[in-house]
Amino acid sequence: MQALAKRQQGLTFISLIFVLGFIGFVVLLFLKIAPVYLDHSKVSSCLSELKKTPHIQSQSQSEIKENLRRQFSINDISEVSPDNITVTKYGNYLRVAIDYEVVRKIIGNLSVLMQFNDVIEVGDQ
């Protein structure tokens, strides 16, 4: 019994390599994904600011897209193109939707796809 307990003292070198490799992969994943989610929070804040804009319902669809494009340029957001923005107007009702995808390469042929969909609605339907 004493000899068996003496052999089981901790991680082997191979186990340590696997644990460190797993921790390294998780850190790499975080470093690749975190900036995308920070940019998404900027997109959400731009939409919130757009909702606070006075007389937003009276603006045309192209004016609304241009306003968002300017805010994205100021905030250094390059993932959202004008094709990803959908503006729907019915009288006094306005709906702005931003639907976009971001693909980040992790290692070799391993990639991560992140899909985002943000919507604001202003006025009565």
How would you sum up this structure, described in words?
- This protein is an alpha+beta fold and 125 residues long.
- It is built from three helices and three strands.
- The protein has a three-stranded antiparallel sheet.
- The termini are far apart.
- The model has no long low-confidence stretch (mean pLDDT 90).
Compose a concise summary of this entry.
It is built from 3 helices and 3 strands, in the order H-H-H-E-E-E. The chain has helices at 2-7, 13-52, 61-74, and strands at 85-90, 93-107, 110-122.
Keywords:
single chain; 3 strands; elongated; alpha+beta; 125 residues; 3 helices
Q: What is the domain total for the residues?
A: 1
State the major sheet. Answer: 3 strands, antiparallel
Cα distance spanning the termini: 77 Å
Proportion of beta-strand residues: 25-35%
Total number of strands: 3
- Give the spatial strand order of the biggest sheet: 1-2-3
Instruction: Describe the oligomeric state of these chains in a short phrase.
Output: single chain
Kindly state the percentage of residues in helix.
40-55%
Radius of gyration: 24 Å
Number of helices: 3
Low-pLDDT ranges: none
The shape, in one word, is elongated
User: What order do the helices and strands follow?
Assistant: HHHEEE
By secondary-structure content and strand pairing, the structural class works out as alpha+beta
Annotate the secondary structure layout:
Layout lengths: L1 H6 L5 H40 L8 H14 L10 E6 L2 E15 L2 E13 L3
Antiparallel strand pairs: 1-2, 2-3
Helix pairs in contact: 2-3
